[in-house]
What we know:
The protein is mainly beta. The chain has three helices and ten strands, in the order H-H-E-E-E-E-E-E-E-E-H-E-E. Strand 8, helix 3 and strand 9 form a beta-alpha-beta unit.
Amino acid sequence: MATDDDESPSAALLRLEPTAARLSTLRKVDIRNLNLSALPRALALCANSLEHLDIGGNPIRSLEGVDKLTKLRILFATGCQLGTEGALPRDGPLARVDSLFMLSLKENGLKVLDGASLPTNLGWLICAQNEISTVHSPSRLRGVRKLMLSHNRLDTAAAGLLISSIPELEMLRLACNQLEDVPEAASRTRSSPGSPSAAIRTRRGR
């Protein structure tokens, strides 16, 4: 028979009256595929400890409350519904998570990549398998080192604008977009042994 001691952190988050002492020390929470429509309010109890959160596979359309997680370093939101409006809100909750370093927004139906909707300290951004064709405020992403944008709808101009705004890019994935040519700015990712790796495939097969 299962006891309270056997309860997982994920289950604890979904209780109506979670134990504050238990949650206040959590550093990693996995609440994937639980049919959540919003972030659990109980996450606020982890605000001063939580570093890694995975909410993938939930029909979540808003990240309201995520800005309360002041220690959060890694957020996986793969396969949610954050792109329902086409883009995340500018200067919204996610943009205020200054501690965030690694973010996955893969498979969210995003049409716009807007730097003003994202935190400025990101080092690793995963936005593959969306519908992104437009880039706004790319200078906000200048700290990114690893950028995954394969399987989107970026053309050469949009991709070039983004890449040229990220001076220290170490890894770039742009395969399966709407590229007619390799963006000129991407040449620095392949020009020397110390430069970033790149996976770029154009319509002409370059």
